[in-house]
Design goal:
Elements: H1 3-14, H2 29-36, H3 43-58, H4 63-82, H5 90-109, H6 114-126, H7 132-151, H8 159-162, H9 216-228, H10 238-246, H11 251-254, H12 256-264, H13 270-298, H14 303-309, H15 333-349, E1 352-359, E2 367-372, H16 373-386, H17 392-411, H18 414-417
Antiparallel strand pairs: 1-2
InterPro entries: PAP2/HPO_sf (IPR036938), TAT_signal (IPR006311), V-haloperoxidase (IPR052559)
Signal peptide: 1-31
Keywords: Signal
Length: 420
């Protein structure tokens, strides 16, 4: 499907009157700031920040589980705010409904934050005039939180299921083996056994096989990562090292601010803002499920194994700049995440935005400025090679897979949001 067609389909599904126009025009940064300074604070931004803080303080150890928490909470909010009962103030109802939905879902999923969540709900509701709009909004949010939580029960995205045991196959050329220095067991195998939100199955967009070990593409991949990804590389520049370090951490953490930028700069329609956050994380859950499906379908070894134990100029002492994660090379999970994030943000807010600054917990003191969602993807593609933990082919394939899964989410959003 043509990208513009996909985008229009998503806009129809989420309510085109409540999202940015299909032209892709993005409000200026000045307009966004003015928007945030209106008389009543933005409930969507308040609860976005609270969701991020809740997960940062007491979230799960597995990234996909935390994406699931975001998805459930904000899907409930999007559904609760969609239809306003007759005879009540629209904004009062929607503010109360969003806060109630996110509060109740987070309370069920992260109960250790009960005190903070309850206090935040009181603060929000204190700003909404007492009356039918508020009471009906609270009831709608609570109802949708219960329904969405029930619909996702037993979906296999809890930490124990995500890291289900995996039996490592015997060592052979190209086959993944645990990697130094920890030689840890395989992680995230259980993702491919989980139930997606919108995919028909984990293997719906399974990638073709990675480059053959005797191909020119594979030789080029290995030569690049050997040269640029070594801890003692003599060709990697300081800027390239910074890129690798900046994008080393959790994709969920690194994309929290870009999504907030998009949220703050979108129109102040509450259902649209809730739907943007929900669909972003729904697509990312499905993307991580699809990523693990392809990873464990092909079991491609990591560069450190290929360079140390392979037949192409083996070097038993070669060490990557950064420690290799404990799962197969193909495709890169950071890049599937980035490709999906780019596709959702582009599909719902346009490809470009006013400049915004981004920091990273793995690169203290470094600030980068971006003006297009695709720039984040390009940095992710390069970063994993410069870190020495992925081949270029794994990165490129990862971007492609993430974009396909997110495109599927955009085309099928009405299945979750119930818009005909």
């Amino acid at each position: 499907m043509h990208p513009l067609t996909t985008r229009r389909s998503a806009l129809r599904a989420l309510g085109s009157a409540a999202l940015l126009a299909a032209s892709g025009t993005v409000p200026s940064a000045t307009a966004a700031v003015a928007d945030e300074r209106t008389s009543r604070p933005s409930v969507a931004l308040d609860w976005y920040d609270l969701t991020a803080a809740t997960i940062a303080a007491a979230g799960a150890a597995t990234q996909i589980t935390n994406n699931r928490t975001w998805a459930i909470s904000w899907l409930a909010a999007a559904r609760a705010t969609r239809e306003v009962p007759p005879g009540v103030d629209r904004r009062d109802f929607q503010d109360a409904a969003l806060a109630s939905a996110v509060h109740d879902a987070l309370l069920a999923l992260v109960p250790s934050r009960t005190q903070e969540l309850d206090a935040a709900l009181r603060t929000t509701l204190d700003r909404v005039p007492d009356g039918l709009a508020r009471s009906k909004g609270v009831a709608a949010g609570a109802r949708q939180a219960r329904l969405v939580l029930a619909s996702r029960e037993g979906d296999g995205l809890d930490p124990a299921s995500v890291n289900a045991p995996f039996t490592v196959p015997p060592a052979a050329p190209g086959v993944w083996q645990p990697t130094p220095p920890a030689y840890a067991p395989a992680a995230q195998y259980g993702n491919r056994l989980a139930r997606p939100f919108l995919l028909d199955g984990p293997d719906q967009y399974r990638l073709p096989a990675p480059p053959a070990l005797d191909s020119a593409r594979y030789r080029a991949d290995l030569a690049e990562v050997r040269a640029y990804g070594a801890v003692d590389s003599t060709v990697r520049t300081a800027l390239q090292t910074e890129t690798a370090t900046f994008w080393l951490g959790s994709s969920l953490t690194l994309y929290t601010e870009p999504l907030r930028v998009a949220l703050a700069r979108s129109p102040r329609f509450v259902p649209a803002r809730a739907a943007l956050v929900a669909l972003f994380h729904i697509a990312l859950v499905d993307t991580q499920i699809a990523t693990s499906d392809t990873k464990y379908a092909y079991l491609r070894w990591r560069p450190v194994t290929a360079i140390r134990a392979g037949t192409i100029d083996p070097d038993p002492d070669w060490t990557p700049l950064h420690v290799t994660p404990a799962h197969p090379d193909y495709p890169s999970g950071h890049n599937t995440y980035s490709g999906a994030a780019e596709t959702i943000l582009t599909g719902l807010t346009g490809p470009r935005t006013a400049p915004f600054e981004l920091t990273s917990p793995t690169a203290p003191g470094v600030t980068r400025t971006y003006t297009a969602w695709s720039q984040l993807s390009q940095d992710n593609e390069d970063a994993r090679v410069y870190s020495g933990i992925h081949t270029r082919s794994a990165d490129v394939a990862g971007l492609a897979l993430g974009k396909r899964v997110a495109g599927h989410a955009l085309r099928n959003a009405e299945r979750l949001f119930g818009v005909s």
